[in-house]
Design goal:
The structure holds 2 protein chains of 2 kinds.
Chain A: E1 4-6, E2 11-14, E3 19-25, E4 30-38, E5 45-50, E6 54-58, E7 61-66, E8 71-76, E9 85-93, E10 100-101, E11 105-110
Chain B: E1 5-7, E2 10-13, E3 19-24, E4 31-37, E5 43-50, E6 53-57, E7 65-68, E8 75-79, E9 88-95, E10 104-106, E11 110-114
Parallel strand pairs in B: 2-11
Antiparallel strand pairs in B: 1-3, 3-8, 4-5, 4-9, 5-6, 7-8, 9-10, 9-11
The chains are: A mainly beta, B mainly beta.
Amino acid sequence: QKEVEQNSGPLSVPEGAIASLNCTYSDRGSQSFFWYRQYSGKSPELIMSIYSNGDKEDGRFTAQLNKASQYVSLLIRDSQPSDSATYLCAVTGGNTDKLIFGTGTRLQVFP
Amino acid sequence: EPEVTQTPSHQVTQMGQEVILRCVPISNHLYFYWYRQILGQKVEFLVSFYNNEISEKSEIFDDQFSVERPDGSNFTLKIRSTKLEDSAMYFCASSLLAGETYEQYFGPGTRLTVT
């Protein structure tokens, strides 16, 4: 059973701080890694994708991938109250394009 | 910016009834998906669809489920005889290309309530 694990949180950070979200996955054959943001009652919104080891930056977001350790993380710099949401880690791998999701980490950014 | 659309936003149905959930994927996308999310649980893959046929389906996607692309724009999920446990958010997603290096974009979802 291929699994994606996330700490459910909530992760509480003050406005302006860096939020660090982590995800581990069980399938070593996983190839593509995604972070989605999901506001309560809404659909997943893609914010980052990463395919190779290292860091990938997009604005205030940085995704980090370490395939040897089978983890992927998301850093949010200068966190804003509007970043408060559940962040879903999703993985594809092997010969499939289906997304396997973690349960998500709830982030709370307080003023 | 192109987006995936879904109708209806909320569907209430009685157990045993048939429902059809509709999706319009992003226009130049070729791969289509259905996922569901039971309240408080993780998003789960149901089925993927390419070139007018199912490319992969999960254990959840049993004989009561079917998918169809009836025309050049719509993509539908039919649940033939709904059960209470089918109550969930159903999300349609689309991707420009499959393989493992292309992003999937989700529609706003249909909340299905089975009573």
